[in-house]
UniProtKB/TrEMBL annotation:
The protein's Enzyme Commission number: 1.5.1.5, 3.5.4.9
Start and end residues of each Tetrahydrofolate dehydrogenase/cyclohydrolase NAD(P)-binding domain: 139-281
Gene: folD
This protein's name: Bifunctional protein FolD
Subunit and interaction comment: Homodimer.
SUPFAM superfamilies named among the record's database cross-references: Aminoacid dehydrogenase-like, N-terminal domain, NAD(P)-binding Rossmann-fold domains
Function: Catalyzes the oxidation of 5,10-methylenetetrahydrofolate to 5,10-methenyltetrahydrofolate and then the hydrolysis of 5,10-methenyltetrahydrofolate to 10-formyltetrahydrofolate.
Record carries keyword Transcription: no
Protein family according to the UniProt entry: Belongs to the tetrahydrofolate dehydrogenase/cyclohydrolase family.
Pathway annotation from the record: One-carbon metabolism; tetrahydrofolate interconversion
Keywords: Amino-acid biosynthesis, Histidine biosynthesis, Hydrolase, Methionine biosynthesis, Multifunctional enzyme, NADP, One-carbon metabolism, Oxidoreductase, Purine biosynthesis
InterPro entries noted in UniProt: Aminoacid_DH-like_N_sf, NAD(P)-bd_dom_sf, THF_DH/CycHdrlase, THF_DH/CycHdrlase_cat_dom, THF_DH/CycHdrlase_CS, THF_DH/CycHdrlase_NAD-bd_dom
Claim: Protein biosynthesis is one of the keywords in the record: no
Catalytic activity: (6R)-5,10-methylene-5,6,7,8-tetrahydrofolate + NADP(+) = (6R)-5,10-methenyltetrahydrofolate + NADPH; (6R)-5,10-methenyltetrahydrofolate + H2O = (6R)-10-formyltetrahydrofolate + H(+)
Length: 285
């Protein structure tokens, strides 16, 4: 058996096409969706992500700009800029690219973003709304994964789902979304005693570990849905996921590739969140 591939790139392209009409409607009503991305420092991976986010917006007719600060910048300068953007009616989404340099209080910065413009969904109030099952903004990566389940016709109700990873940006919100969707969820992490015991009995495995090719074919059950959130750069420069794709391909029922899986969906859902924010502001949502 060879797994069916859930193509994130194709789904991302399809969704982005469908967003264009919504952006046009909003623009005609004087609410052109606008996203500002704040980057502190020169981390090469972050620079690529920020560029892709800004370009993703521009490609579908949205407004987007990046604001770049030197890594030594005082936190207050960034907080003042966020306050200014919170008050700017042309801006519907504000995103601070993580990680921030060590002298920053990440929580304080994220909490400074207006909950109405927190398109990453990392503000404590938005995290709370998600856990109550009434999200305002769903964090983009797990949101993208949920869309991929839809695309792959994966019925989550009553399924055993195992999420490997418990970060605030992927693992925890992923688990919350799966619970809300009716799955029975186990969250594994570095302190989990017998990871294979959990993954072997799962109908759905979501890998967000940050370790290349971590999930092997013998860790999953025949026919499982395997979602690979990982993005790892190998010494030869190639990208690879947290799942050993070749090894799992013959065991899984459905699988996502890297690249071309969850990655393109993350930015797509950022665009979706910003459009939703603009639609709320325009009173058409
Ligand atoms: P973090 O490093 O914040 O979290 C990794 C998680 O994996 C932690 O909870 C950690 O456990 C757990 N873990 C580490 N080692 C093991 C192990 N041996 N067994 C079980 N669990 C383990 O990473 P992120 O959540 O930020 O990202 C995860 C991956 O997803 C990365 O590859 C990242 O690049 C990628 N990513 C991809 C995105 C996309 O757009 N596709 C977006 C964001 C991230 P513990 O908590 O105990 O330390």
């Amino acid at each position: 058996m060879t797994a069916q591939i859930i193509d994130g790139k194709a789904l991302a392209d399809e969704l982005r096409q469908s967003f264009k009409a919504r952006v046009e409607t909003l623009t005609a009503k004087g609410h052109k969706p606008g996203l500002v991305v704040i980057l502190v420092g020169e981390d090469p991976a972050s620079q690529v992500y920020v560029k892709n986010k800004v370009n993703g917006c521009l490609a579908i007719g949205m407004h987007s700009e990046k604001i770049v600060y030197d890594r030594e910048v005082d936190q207050q300068v960034v907080l003042d800029k966020i306050a200014e953007l919170n008050a700017d009616p042309a801006i519907h989404g504000i995103l601070v690219q993580l990680p921030l340099p060590k002298h920053f209080d990440e929580e304080k910065v994220l909490e400074a973003i207006s909950v109405e413009k927190d398109v990453d969904g990392f503000h404590a109030e938005n995290v709370g709304a998600l856990s109550q099952g009434a999200p305002r903004f769903i964090p983009c990566t797990p949101y993208g994964v949920m869309k991929m389940f839809e695309k792959g016709n994966v019925d989550l109700t009553g399924k055993e789902a195992v999420v490997i990873g418990r970060s605030n940006i992927v693992g925890k919100p992923m688990a919350m979304l799966l619970i809300n969707a009716g799955a029975t969820v186990t969250v594994c992490h570095s302190k989990t005693k017998d990871l294979n015991f959990h993954t072997k009995r799962a109908d759905i495995v979501v890998a967000a570990v940050g370790k290349p090719k971590f999930v092997k074919g013998d860790m999953i059950r025949l026919g499982a849905v395997v979602i690979d959130v990982g993005i790892n750069r190998l010494p030869d420069g190639k990208l690879c996921g947290d799942v050993d794709y070749a090894d799992c391909l013959e065991v899984a029922g459905q699988i996502t590739p890297v690249p071309g899986g969850v990655g393109p969906m993350t930015i797509t859902m950022l665009l979706a969140n910003t459009i939703e924010a603009a639609e709320r502001k325009a009173g058409i949502r």
